[in-house]
TrEMBL record:
This is Transcriptional regulator. InterPro entries: Tscrpt_reg_Rrf2 (IPR000944), WH-like_DNA-bd_sf (IPR036388), WH_DNA-bd_sf (IPR036390). PROSITE patterns: HTH_RRF2_2. GO terms for molecular function: DNA-binding transcription factor activity. Transmembrane segments: none annotated. The lineage of its organism: Bacteria, Pseudomonadati, Pseudomonadota, Alphaproteobacteria, Hyphomicrobiales. Signal peptide: none annotated. It holds the Pfam family Rrf2. It comes from the Bacteria.
Amino acid sequence: MKRNSRLSAVLHALLHMAERGAPMTSDELAVCLQTNPVVVRRTMAGLRDVGLVTSGRGHGGGWALARPLEAVTMRDIYSALGEPMLFQMGNATESPGCLVEQAVNHALDDAFRDAEAMLIARLGEVTLAMLAQDFKRRFAEHRALYQNKG
């Protein structure tokens, strides 16, 4: 089963935009994400509709962040994407007649609900600024490693 990687892709794009510090075109973002510019435009338009990014036309135009990195959480992005389903697992039958399957469904429903609540809460704790800081740390370590080899 194919995973929904939109949250990861959008976070990736937003961090590239932050690092650039200037608007990025759909074509530029598509190269970063290894996708089609049409996919980028469709996704970014949804983020623009909720005030996470802005867009400009013409020379110097493109997509830009609308808020400081500290003011945007991964949960904000998750919500902007329409809160895609977090887990691919589910019950075999939603309304089973079998009492055994009802017990199984009840246990699984509770576990899925608890896990989803924990994950959504965690998404709300992580800002884009935290992700950008982690990237910068990794970049510095990577650069130091290769400078020391030469």
